[in-house]
Design a protein that fits this description.
two-stranded antiparallel ribbon, mainly alpha, 6 helices, elongated, 3% strand
């Protein structure tokens, strides 16, 4: 019995780690850096848009052209393309890949709608309402992850050993290690 539990834990651990990594990748907008500029009165710094329609321009103090914050949908589209290349999705895997992509797009759209509603009503919120709204964002994020996990698990199970190794390495490197490497440059 112990061997079965250990074997299951070893098999399930990479899938769970990958799901957590996907969460970090796909839903980064909910960090508190959005709230900090509003509280301090300084404009938010955002990344330039790569494709699609820009979401919102934030003025800069330096007189440089304003940088544009990409929507969650735009960031997710870019990540989907990157992941497809990095994971080397084969034609045989296209069905399970498309199912995962659809869940990712649906989640991103839902988070975008929630962010827009939050941004619109935020000025009128008191601290308790703001915290309640943030809880709603977090719950929506969790629900999205729960929808994404079975789709990702199906894709992972369809991967060759080489693809799984590549996916494991991608997910182990994670967002935090990438950010640390960028800061040290």
């Amino acid at each position: 019995m112990k061997k079965k539990v250990c074997r299951f834990a070893r098999t399930a651990t990479p899938v769970v780690v990958m799901a957590v990594f996907l969460a970090a990748i796909f839903f980064t907008w909910t960090n508190l850096s959005i709230a900090a500029p509003a509280a301090s009165g300084t404009p938010a710094k955002t990344a330039p848009a790569v494709s699609g329609t820009p979401a919102k321009a934030a003025p800069t103090d330096s007189g440089a052209p304003p940088r544009v914050r990409r929507s969650q949908v735009q960031r997710t589209e870019a990540r989907i393309a990157d992941l497809q290349k990095a994971l080397k999705i084969t034609p045989d895997q296209q069905g399970v890949w498309n199912a995962l992509v659809q869940v990712m797009k649906d989640n991103a759209k839902e988070m975008d709608e929630l962010r827009k509603a939050r941004t619109k009503s935020r000025r009128d919120m008191n601290a308790v309402e703001d915290l309640q709204n943030y809880c709603q964002v977090t719950e929506t994020h969790l629900a999205g992850m729960k929808k994404m996990l079975p789709a990702f698990e199906a894709l992972y199970n369809s991967m060759s050993d080489e693809q799984k190794k590549n996916a494991d390495a991608l997910f182990k490197m994670g967002r935090h290690e990438k950010q640390g490497k960028q800061k040290s440059k």
